[in-house]
């Protein structure tokens, strides 16, 4: 494996690992806060149990996300020193603010996890909310930094020099809003569906039904509301990408030739050599409409972009299809759930609904990984779009492949351990939180 | 504004050494203890640092962010030439951080605990060891930007006697800080005596490894003595550190928990001051005789200004809440132990 490929793989692996933990770590606190709120309001023990059980999950994910995030702040330099040398001073602003947000999150989590029965209950509740808000702020800031790589701003690039640096302008680059919105919603969708699905599974197994039903409902509502909003933010993102990164859009859609009333390509097998997609379903005019809001307008194809600036088409296209497809399925499930909640209460006691949520457990996270691949691979061959090529940014140190192997082994074992721990947490629910129905309304002091 | 940024950089390294150091040290003490004492260290430590353990390690991230935003050339030079120990330290951080959480949040207590514990204690020692090596590489003039073979560019830049002795010294200092900290956290006389003994051992170990640092520096022709004793600030810092060590030794068993913590912290701060003052503002000394200076390598004004404002703004939020966190858990602990009596 050559060093460049190894460096890219290691970065992809580290981010792909971190993104899951970061999403769960920033969304779960909100679920927790709702359950906690219900406990404080109603005094039903089951909500306290749900809060406590979830807080353990949060602790595990937060810590894993924190260490993998620490690793990333070093890896940027270890793998891409040339990039960091120039980009650091320009896009560093969100990172310095993120330091603060993350620090507050760590402090608030300290209060929350260790503060049971030690503080005023509402202060304690509030620290949990702060965990969520600062986690969300961290996520948005980091995405803003990534958005800068797609939409460089806040400097003038003249004769290979980075002049007139303005870190604030860099932070509020054109892509930050659409990317941050899309990522935040994605985090809620993925975590909501995954958590709801796990509790749905336990309901189906008939264990601690009340506990798992309450937990399911909170997670499912968060996930489904976000799933319905997500396509809207996807539309904003698509229009944004069409404007700033036509090559990325063309790769996402495997759109090889510029044409008016461009069709949306669904499925198919990409043939990059011959610049065509076989066996695909084509919906005329839809791509033009998605990109420009006008089904007649021309969409730039890869033929208008110099060959050396093409991103890998096939993988970007497939990833995009996976993301959109899963997003649609989850939206559909969200609508079914809404109908059940508002019109057909009988559906809520049907096993089939829970089964659907169980099937959806991994969907959100697969969609996140796919979407992440779209934005990162679709940006290639650039590390800073239009300014610096990824290949020029890599470290001169040889032997990165070994580093990649080590990190792969570490991340795989960590993932396995975390899954093992969660499995044990869930298995222990019946022992730790076994509540009989008659004990449900014990008043808390 | 540049000096604000530099002050924050120094402060975060200092706090990481003190707080993160005590945190690593707790694992180191656990590593060298046996049987019942090992469990006692574990439980005391969990109670004492549990609420703040995440915050302790944030200082490292702050320092890194300051480096890559404000002084990118220094950050990238280190990233390239000290890649290997940095990676080793990162693996230590991953192992330690996750093992700590896993052992406290695993719902089932079984043999897995032994595995978590083992990972935790070894990584607690390995991580500061590599931190010491990395720190040593900044001043040992072994980083050679012109090197054209793998060994001299990426290995000899950090692997030498001086680096290893500084690494061991760092490990001892961490153990020392943790022992002093834990003395104030245990309640029975017997426990206190036990940790006082450990603290004394750690002082001796730090002293011996410190002597080896000077010996190695001499063999590697690093003028460490000149740096530390060649300037009045260094002299005063070392004198202050020595006096506080003597006072500390004498008051260790006098039940003055706060005083000994302050003395230990003061002493470590003086050592850091003596080690960094002579070179300031140079932060990395290179083989060709040149050096990377915090003044010359600083980014443009606008970057430094916004970084300084971000840091100042951050401290308005962070410091009060951090103090409140420390204060309230210290307070709650006391009220609880009163109830027990």
TrEMBL record, chain A:
Keywords: Cell membrane, Electron transport, Heme, Iron, Membrane, Metal-binding, Transmembrane, Transmembrane helix, Transport. It is a multi-pass membrane protein. It is found in: Cell membrane. The chain crosses the membrane at residues 12-37, 58-80, 100-116, 123-149, 180-203, 215-233, 318-340, 352-374, 402-423. GO terms for biological process: aerobic electron transport chain. GO terms for cellular component: cytochrome complex; plasma membrane. It comes from the Bacteria. GO terms for molecular function: electron transfer activity; heme binding; metal ion binding; oxidoreductase activity, acting on diphenols and related substances as donors, oxygen as acceptor. Pfam families: Cyt_bd_oxida_I. Its main location: membrane. Belongs to the cytochrome ubiquinol oxidase subunit 1 family. This is Cytochrome bd-I ubiquinol oxidase subunit 1 apoprotein. It comes from Olivibacter domesticus.
From TrEMBL, chain B:
It is found in: Cell membrane. One of its GO terms (cellular component) is cytochrome complex. The keyword Cell membrane applies. It comes from the Bacteria. One of its GO terms (biological process) is aerobic electron transport chain. Keywords: Cell membrane, Membrane, Transmembrane, Transmembrane helix. The chain crosses the membrane at residues 6-32, 53-74, 80-103, 115-135, 155-182, 202-219, 231-252, 259-280, 307-327. Belongs to the cytochrome ubiquinol oxidase subunit 2 family. PANTHER family: CYTOCHROME BD2 SUBUNIT II (PTHR43141). This is Cytochrome bd-I ubiquinol oxidase subunit 2 apoprotein. It comes from Olivibacter domesticus (Pseudosphingobacterium domesticum). The lineage of its organism: Bacteria, Pseudomonadati, Bacteroidota, Sphingobacteriia, Sphingobacteriales.
